[in-house]
Specification:
Low-confidence stretches: 1-27
Mean pLDDT: 93
Strand order of the largest sheet: 32-33-35-34-36-37-38-39
Helix content: 10-25%
Distance between the termini: 45 Å
Number of helices: 15
Strand content: 25-35%
Number of strands: 39
Structural class: alpha+beta
């Protein structure tokens, strides 16, 4: 999606009056537990020998219990066949010299960047030209390189800065690459010191760089807050600083505002004063002073379309005698905005209806396309300015499906869409703008959906709010509470969880008799900014209440029973699962806690945790610590409670949530004699294994665990 963005990140009921000794212990003056209160802080050292010895011992114990299950090899083979499938859709991006795809399979576990022509791509067997072989590069340099994307110079996009991660960390190095010669540029731009942050191109000889420039250039969240202009042939250390935020920001940096032709219209900057709030600036080309934009902190620049610059807002915006509702799109004439960034007249492009929210978008050569969620069902609208007003039309695509924009062209009206649901493989639609989208490619079916059906229900949360959820189950399933159900959700950071092809879940779980539940929790983005903002900070417990309510509703309706109900989630979703099984241990029979946040009293000190204070609060502030102490799973693991046996897993290279969270949770369970499993992928990053073999192993371990806990 070619939209202007400040930064792409990746990066989330109590059990009576019982409290943990960890929570009750004397804290330092900031209220944050230290070594005297927390005996497992040493596990926060990701790669210390002591911590890695502990990890190896835990891995050995878990593998002995799960890998030896007679079903393990079959499940692993099923997962690997899906991940390595030659028939899966090779999703692409449009560039002037072809369609680019990054591909991993059994012969290329680390992957290859490759390209083809549109004509070839439209055939069943495209001819691919390898541009960069990550496996060969890693072998030559003795590194566990993971391809982390590229930043290319518009409009030709033949000069690119390639980002490489060692083992899957978020931090990367960057090297200049020539797409025409398919080689790294000799004596080109190179940043060999790994760091968060990125680069963008002013011109062929000039980069705008936001990186770790040494002492005093990273925020508390360990993201850059300065940007520099780097000229070819000069040391990066001599690059001129162009923008500086504050060390107290979550992140800050400058960016270049281009239209779809690659023309530069302005240099902009932002200060992320919290994870969800930013201040925006534009550089005055005459005075070279930064002008602060008079837009809400929960708003941002969206892109340039038809000679207008668009802004999106997550809150109601009262300006010039009019109110633009939250989640709307607002347009200003581009030339008028460049002349007077805060005085340009504003016009409504789109505002959401009830239970509607925009999800994503793309700008082609002539139009803006926006995907919407309408009661958790997708639509796509095309917007154009006809000279006097903004007009829109709905793009004809299948109903009752999840639709995404897979690729779009800057130069033409070519655009691709993905269409998916739980039981039908993802289909790729394409149009060049001259006709309605038509099917271009379809993913293979990985399981037989015959005899399965999808229903949508609502649970009532603790405060009376209705929480929708989907259940995928055998048709005519007896409501006797004996079906094994896997329930998942997210509920954070305004990220929606939507129906999508179940793939490996269908193959490895549902065909063996299991059911699947997806909960649409507050804190997520299924119903717009309000759905998110009503369940953050002091109200974060509402997310946990929603998830528990869905679990209770499944039991009350007879879909399942506690001994057959398992829950699963990763990152913020790992925190979700941690809160659920510690607050309602009687409700669940299994809990997969993936790459989680777990110790919320020290989360701001671990990984990138400080950046999420806007979502959860700051445990150093007594009032906010009180919110967090009420649910922090690590502190809620206490003596005298019979928890379901959880499976916690993490990744050594995860520099986002950090493996310490899962490690400490497992260590605390072990201390109390509670049964648990712990596994740590020692090569992958935040999302797990760096190659398909390891990903398949992780999947098989989890489904073996679920079967042992819920079915056997």
């Amino acid at each position: 999606m070619k939209l202007v963005s400040t930064l792409a990140l990746a990066a989330v009921m109590t059990i009576g009056a019982t409290t943990s000794a960890l929570a009750d212990a004397h804290m330092d003056e900031s209220g944050v537990p230290g070594p005297e209160q927390d005996p497992y802080i040493w596990l926060e050292e990701a790669r210390s020998e002591e911590a890695l010895d502990w990890v190896r011992a835990e891995n050995t114990r878990t593998l002995a219990a799960l890998e030896t299950d007679p079903r393990f090899e079959e499940l692993k083979a099923e997962a690997l066949a899906i991940f390595d499938s030659e028939d899966r859709i090779p999703f692409v991006s449009f560039r002037p010299d072809g369609l680019y795809n990054f591909w991993q399979d059994k012969d290329n576990p680390k992957g290859v960047l490759r390209r083809t022509t549109l004509e070839s791509y439209q055939t069943d067997n495209p001819e691919w030209e390898v541009v960069l072989d990550i496996d060969a590069l890693a072998a030559a340099e003795g590194k566990e390189w993971v391809y982390s994307g590229s930043s290319c110079l518009p409009p030709a996009q033949n000069k690119c800065m390639i980002a490489l991660s060692d083992g899957g960390e978020d931090a990367t190095i960057m090297r200049e690459f020539d797409m025409a010669t398919k080689s790294f540029v000799e004596d080109g731009f190179v940043i060999e010191e790994k760091s968060q942050g990125g680069v963008s191109w002013f011109d062929e000889d000039t980069l705008l760089v936001g990186r770790d420039f040494g002492e005093g250039t990273l925020t508390e969240s360990e993201y850059p807050f300065t940007s520099r202009v780097w000229k070819r042939g000069t040391p990066l250390s001599e690059a001129k600083e162009i923008f500086r935020g504050e060390a107290s920001d979550v992140w800050a940096g400058a960016s270049i505002l281009r239209d779809n032709t690659g023309t530069i219209h302005a240099t902009t900057a932002f200060r992320g004063v919290s994870f969800h709030e930013s201040e925006y600036f534009v550089l005055d080309p005459n005075t070279y002073e930064w002008i602060k934009l008079d837009i809400p902190k929960k708003a941002s620049l969206y892109g340039i379309v038809d000679g207008h610059i668009l802004v999106t807002t997550d809150v109601d915006w009262e300006v010039d005698g009019q109110t633009f509702p939250a989640d709307s799109l607002i347009a200003m004439d581009l030339e008028e905005w460049k002349a007077d960034p805060n005085g340009a007249a504003k016009t409504l492009v789109w505002a959401p209806g009830e239970r509607q929210t925009k999800r994503g978008g793309a700008i082609t050569g002539n139009s803006l396309f926006v995907t919407l969620l309408d009661n958790v069902v997708s639509k796509v609208l095309e917007f154009n300015y006809d000279g006097s007003a903004w007009v829109s039309r709905e793009v004809p695509l299948p109903d009752n499906a999840t639709i995404g924009i897979a690729a779009s062209s800057n130069e033409t009206d070519q655009i691709m869409y993905t269409v998916s649901d739980f039981l039908n493989p993802t289909t790729l639609y394409y149009t060049d703008g001259s006709a309605d989208p038509a099917v271009l490619k379809t993913s293979p079916a990985y399981f037989d959906p015959a005899g399965m059906e999808v229903e949508q229900h609502e649970a009532t949360s603790a405060d009376g709010t209705k929480i929708p959820y989907f259940i995928v189950k055998p048709a005519g399933m007896e409501m006797n509470g004996e079906t094994a159900v896997l329930m998942t959700g997210y509920g954070g950071f305004q990220i929606p969880r939507l129906p999508g092809y179940l793939g490996s879940t269908g193959k490895m779980w549902m065909v063996r008799g299991g059911a699947y539940v997806l909960a649409n929790l507050r804190g997520g983005g299924e119903f717009g900014p309000g759905w998110h903002q009503t369940a953050i900070r002091e109200n974060k417990q509402r997310t946990w209440d929603d998830f528990i309510a869905v679990g209770q509703d499944l039991v009350d309706r007879g879909f399942t029973s506690p001994e057959h109900l398992g829950i699963q989630g990763g990152s913020q979703g790992g925190l979700l699962v941690g809160t659920a099984f510690t607050q309602r241990p009687d409700l669940f029979g299994a809990a997969i806690v993936q790459i989680p946040l777990f110790d919320m009293l020290r989360y701001h000190l671990i990984g990138r945790g400080a950046s999420w204070i806007g979502e959860y609060g700051d445990p150093r502030i007594p009032e906010q610590r009180a919110w967090i102490e009420g649910y922090s799973p690590y502190q809620k693991i206490v003596e005298g409670v019979d928890y379901p046996t959880p499976f916690l897993w993490a990744s050594t290279a995860d520099d986002r949530t950090h493996p310490a969270h899962a490690r400490k949770g497992a260590a605390r369970l072990k201390e109390l004699g509670q049964p648990y499993y712990y596994y740590e992928d020692m090569t992958g990053g935040h999302s797990g294994g760096v190659d398909n073999e390891q990903r398949a192993k992780l999947q098989a371990l989890q489904y073996i665990y679920l079967m042992q806990q819920l079915m056997d």
